[in-house]
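Running low. Invent one:
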Amino acid sequence: MEHISLRIGERLKEIRNIRQMTLDDVAKLTGVSKLMLGQIERGQSSPTINTLWKISTGLKIPLSFFCKQQEAEFQVAEVEEEGWITNENEGMRAYPLYPFDPVRNVEVFYLEFDSGIRQRSETQRRGVEKYIFLINGTLKVIVGEEEITLTKRQSLRFRADISHEYLNVSDELCTFYDMIFYPND
């Protein structure tokens, strides 16, 4: 099984080549340095979730595009221990279960937040919706000015085109599924 850093680099290079963009072009669109983009493409750097969000937002592609594998008739998803994307302090881990599917316009992640971890998500483009299904722990979700506290086996749907962040307010590991639906453009 290939390491996710290599897959991310290959996918970045693929989209850049398809769009006939230079590293400079991508750096200007994303706010990520040319040096960092080159290291990611070569698999020499494992980008944080925030860096990947900047790249996916700048290129207007779903984050899970970078983790996409070949399609099959059916797919059983499994959380891969080495296949996660993290924030700067590694207290949050996002495991891509189902990368972006252009037919269904959806992607699905399994997330783990250590106790006390806060993660601000990048504002998505207009029309994007998120569905959160909490498995374990207590998660505070701040959507715009609203604070919603979810407990075990609760779920939340919200527009992701407004600012939002997550905070594990429990003393235990918080786990949940994050389904992201994209509008037809």
